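User: Predict the structure for this protein chain, please.
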Amino acid sequence: MRSTWVRVGATALACWLAACSSGKPQPSTSSFAQRFADGGSCPPASAPGLPSGSGCVTSVAADLDGNGTSDRFLVYARLADGTPTSWWARALLSGSSPTPPARLPAGEAVGGTSMIYPRVAGATQANTAPGDEVFVQLSADLFHGAAPPIDAIYDVRDGHVVPVTSNGKLFTFSTGGISRFGSGARCDGDRVFTLTHVEIEPNGWTWSDHRYTWNGTDLVAGARSSGHLPPVLISNARVYRNFDLICGPLRLSQVTDSYPKP
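Assistant: Here is the predicted structure, written as structure tokens:
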């Protein structure tokens, strides 16, 4: 199992970006991996597979169709006067035509804010189906100075980008949190995807898990479990793993090292 991770933090976590100080588009070294400030103007992009008038592009290289060759998954905005008007995903498949663009929900539509822009988080094989799954941050929930990402999972099936669903609806989940509580997700083998939660109480931490089983591109809700941890620091692995997105070699953490640069 291989993985690629490219997530950058939301505004509250990633103001080390040069663009954060000005809110203006900055020069990019690659039209497939642009740096941009959440809530600001998008740097324009021009590259194969991108429609004209695109910007705020993030991407990941992965084997999306399971044929053993590297493809590329793109997330980008359509722009009007440099401002995002809609968000899209597309897969550039080696040896075949690009997939049709798939519109992404964002902002308030997924319980977040339009001030936090969608972006690729990473890719890895999360189940037994051929090809890698792509984790996409659609928005974030701003509170108490933090910005926990709101994520979704996307696949490429029969030449189309398709979202992972649960009970007929887009499957979304949160990761990260604040010092008192947080949420995460992990792949337990190649059949189970587990959502995690942890919060501090006077005598330690309580944790809970909710297990989902893969059925194609659907996640079927299953058993729940819970327990207690002693009053250790959030930097203890038994606590912070519940804030992380962990899937095979893919690990994204706001607690141990924030998110990597694009």
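The CA atoms of residues 90 and 101 lie 5 Å apart.
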